[in-house]
Amino acid sequence: MPKRTDIKKILLIGAGPIVIGQACEFDYSGTQACKSLKEEGYEIILVNSNPATIMTDPEFADRTYIEPVTPEVVEKIIARDRPDALLPTMGGQTALNVALALAESGVLEKYNVEMIGADVETINKAEDRNLFKEAMFRIGQKVPPSGHAKSLEEAWEIVEDTGFPAIIRPSFTLGGTGGSVAYSKDDFGALVEFALKASPVTQVLIEKSLIGWKEYELEVMRDLKDNVVIICSIENLDPMGIHTGDSITVAPAQTLTDKEYQIMRNAAIDIVREIGVETGGSNIQFAVDPETGEMIVIEMNPRVSRSSALASKATGFPIAKFAAKLAVGYSLDEIKNDITRVTPASFEPTLDYCVVKIPRFTFEKFFQTEPILSTQMKSVGEVMSIGRTFKEALQKSIRSLETGLYGFEENFRFSLNQIGLSPEQQKEKLLAALILPFSDRLWHVAAALRRGISIDQIHQITGIDPWFLDNINCIISFEKEIMRLDGVSNLDDETLLSAKKMGFSDIYLARLLNCEEKDIFHRRTEAEIYPVFKRVDTCGAEFEAFTPYLYSTYEEECEADVTARKKIMILGGGPNRIGQGIEFDYCCVHASFALKEDGYETIMVNCNPETVSTDYDTSDRLYFEAVTFEDVMNIVRVEKPDGVIVQFGGQTPLKLALDLMNAGVPIIGTNPIDIDRAENRKLFKEVLEKLELRQPANGTAVSYQEAREIAEEIGYPVVVRPSYVLGGRAMEIVYSQDRLEYYMQHAVNASPEHPVLVDDFLEDAIEIDVDAISDGEDVVIGGVMEHIEEAGIHSGDSACSLPAFSLSSKTIDEIKIQTCALARELKVIGLINIQFAVKDETVYIIEVNPRASRTIPFVSKTIGVPLAKIAARVMAGKSLQEVGFTEEISFPHIAVKESVFPFNKFQDVDVLLGPEMKSTGEVMGIDTHFGRAFAKSQLATGVKLPLEGTAFISVKDSDKPKTVAIGKGLQKLGYHLIATRGTADYLKKNGVKVSSINKVKEGSPHIVEALEAKQIDIVINTVFGEQSIKDSFSLRRSSLNLNLPYCTTMAGASALMGALKCIKENDLTITSIQEYGATS
Amino acid sequence: MKKAYLALADGKVFEGDHFGAEGEVDAEIVFNTSMSGYQEVITDPSYRGQMVLMTYPLIGNYGINPQDFESDRPHLSGFIIKELSGITSNWRSRETLEDFLKKFGIIGIQGIDTRALTRRIREKGAQQAVLSTVSQDPEELVRKAQNSSGLVGKDLVKEVTCHEAYDWEEGEWEIRNGKTSLKPAVDKKSFVVAYDFGIKRNILRKLADAGCRVRVVPASTPAKEVLALNPDGVFLSNGPGDPAGVPYAITNIKFLLGKVPIFGICLGHQMLNLALNGKTFKLRFGHHGGNQPVMDIPSGKVEITSQNHGFAVTYDSVESSIDVTSVNLNDQTIEGIRHKEWPVFSVQYHPEASPGPHDSSHLFQQFTQLMKVGV
Q1: B68 and A265 in contact by Cβ < 8 A?
Q2: What is the pTM of this model?
Q3: Residues of B in contact with A353 (CB under 8 A)
Q4: Does residue B113 share a domain with residue B238?
């Protein structure tokens, strides 16, 4: 069927901020959908509050609204732009939920908007557990015995039938938020209550636990002609009981015979038809009993998903792109396979390689939480690797993770090799660890195999299929063989080649042989052992592949077929993690786009399957590889690029810069030596002294003794942190010597190679972020951003405003002058980001990063100029003059960036902000007035802004003076005030009417009870000192669980008040970024 | 591990590790792109005279089980893979792949760049090759491969067909209540005589499940004897090699045309077309896999099909009395025909799957419908 001509304008809903369970895979799918529909000539209206997405670049839609993805806002867009159709399947659960809400409230009908891809009935059938269960029953498919409860009482009745352990799943949440496993009556009640709260419809599913069963996923596509194809099968290494987002997964399925696979395939086809997904991609999860093969349907997502992004990357079949085409009426046979060019999309990809995905966790950021996996997703990113064998792919994934592990090293939370621990005791420790699914279970398994614990026993304990265990065991056996060589000089060519074929990295081999990575590298060069590159082609080489989507392996034939064009290679950022996420991928993609436009061949290297950068469409050539020295050098050897960009992918490529340069790799842009001058504390001090610029008093310590001396000289409080980190890892503000001692002894491992930085902490200073571009001659400011929270809160967690809203023009000018001076001194070619602190009109430099920063997309979207693209062109040799960016942009609007946190996934974690970054994503609010822009940013994070009600205030002594203005302001807006005794007394004394309430420790009736009784609508709570933080923990957790606006800083409270004022005065309006004047 | 060598007629030699039986064999080399189903492939009689390269690299993972045989033994001459699993993991597995191959004297080679080999076959076409664990002289092996005669014009059917007629009743298995058991039997309303040119058991199972009582007869059974059994329909099975190498079968089919409903699959389809005055030609490297898109021309719907053939029917040889009913969307070759007057139809692909998708299994019902109507 040809495409539909009765629809012209299509509204696409994006997924909003990056959160756990909904990450940049939806930028990947949304971007594909936009491109694909635009190509067909449709007018695209897009809404997404996440500025760090490629899809919100102005050229991807005709109208792009960077506005909150809420039903209210989307209704306004519909009323204004009158789209003919709404495509709800590209923006994750967020988009589906908003679309459903709009359908149910009658908005779609009112404006005559047709939902394409999936309709309301389909979404409900797939999402509502009861309807899904009925549907499965109709087609003879089994689902786990289960029942729905709207209350605890109902839940108790259901669990009588299902028994323990029981899975508890709240309805309509993403990433399994609020889900858990109850092992007995003891924990059941509390877990159900929590899950009921997490569900927006106060409903939970109690389900028979299939813990230990094998878990599979199929990615399915269907078109309007009812053609159905399976794009990819995925087998989880982890059995049921661990969220698939947190599972190590493998494609294709490994341990199913064809008969069993076809039974699953037939079921998937029946399910898609029964649920009624008319067009597009769906994901269906199955559990299989390893003893009998009995198969049970777990769930289906009637939309593109994290798994479909993975499946697209794993197979080369672009699910979202084709799903968009199907949604407008094409059938699969009418779409050409991009890679083969001659065959149609109506086929099933076949792989001649093995794909492994490993999730990336950041439990170290949330040390109050045990790193144990369950049905609620906790990972923040993932890596994917392609190898010709599972062993090779697995080991490539491990080094892609960038956790400091390059193989099966033993780096556990418990010590295995401590003195006096017998081999038997070590085994016992490991066996005990295997019982629970820790985030590093893969390494526990390897360590157990290393100590001779049998595959069978590990299988019994962990439920991991023996096939996977045997493969890991082969690696461990080979590792022993290598260690027996006793030194790199005994490493013969044949053994080395076998090791490389099995996926061993140079570094891990070096660790096994007690030598340096470079020794192995030399040995390999001597023996001429290099990998070849194979193509991902969807068809197992049956047809010629025209798309250079490549992966390395140690075999005979290389299919890289490099060209003689001028080429630039861009090193990506690896897995998403807190501190390094989609913003860096955005910059890499922009570099690729810009240099492609300028006639270069662009080569992308990355291993993150969620991203736009690893779409084979983004760059001329894609190497799906780990971003390590070894892997990059292998590609460089074959490609011989004219330039390599290391400054856009965050810390991942940056930390390779010096080694690459020393190995002769042509790094373009700012010289790695100058980058080092900015990152190395000592060298940087010299730079500042030369320029006569100020930084907070500081010192470098390699021991507690030294740290104490420095702190005493500077005076407490001080900020302490390890050198060379991103995202404020292990950074802390220390107020006392005791705490400093604790920090130096427990939080970091200081050494001469890894010193600890001790800085004066500027209390109540304003923090400023500046992004600028330099071509070596001229420096142009991108934007000067003012943080809303005061210095001390990590810049990645702080809200910020562009332009600055409270600084004097004199201060701003001073900041700009210093920026230019630093850019020149560091001979910056490309991007530079500087963080300043301003206290009493004095400007201090906190840090300088001569590279792409997290704020580049936000600034670019705000000023309407693509900074990363310009920077890439400058790095490739153009002047700012030549690219036409010669002066700072002035603009009439205000944009606010707000951070989004994963606290709801980590029950034991405090929501207080500090110098260690904890946010996973960001949103942008843009308007002509600060208050309105701030209000939009809050709404975009998912917080509800109450137009009336009660505000609770409880603040530390030093903040009390500031509460008066806020209290009065809120009162004037009609809010009731309630405060804990100290704060209430202070407010009353200053003429603010307020009632008081007990702190939790003061006993009932206390504030948490009031919160739970829904008597509080806004929470303002600042604390000082460990005890008071502990005391008020439950208060902040409750606010979070109830999704209330809560401020943990006075600056935040003041901004919130401004926002409330605006939305009370005027209804919010919407404006597209094209109208703000964005250009591509 | 013992070395094995694979030498191609074009002069290329691959050195790998041996598994399975030892020895030396020459045959045509083809690649199969199915990611699962090696047991079915190995025991499919259509692979007689060929050695098979699996493009999916990890083979042997789920072992060999008693239910998924397509015949009672392997028929291919050699088996070429990237990596043999060190373990079998599946609740139905009873034997390792290696033991199974050893038992039946099938030579295997692993550890070679199977993707390079696949690309070579794609570029240069299917060709003769020698697989050896005996000789280590590459030049000698290449010479042997060059001297090896191909399968064009050969009658390989006689090597795989049954010697005596037999009845078949068993249907497919399913998993019920935690057990692998046969599907409940259905009423056998039609009587089918199936010519065994190398028939796959799953065809028989599918016919049984569609309600057919089946009598399997040797390939050389005269048509008159078949008609004397008074069947409701005649089935022409798949099989190895060149349809032109089996003239007696074509003569028999000619005799049956118009007298009884006929359904042919794969080689059966090709021979049926030859009997209808059509012509066949050898494809460069054939279709061997489970992901081939076939469009049903009347409905415009696409089915993903299982395929295994090296020859195909030429378009211009199809007479006006015949409708082409389906076409391969990858290379536009003919996938199915139907006679305009007689109840006769056939498909180039494998609706019985095994291995591969089940999208086309409705064709067996179509056959039973046709038999109800009769001639």
Answers
A1: no
A2: 0.95
A3: 57
A4: no
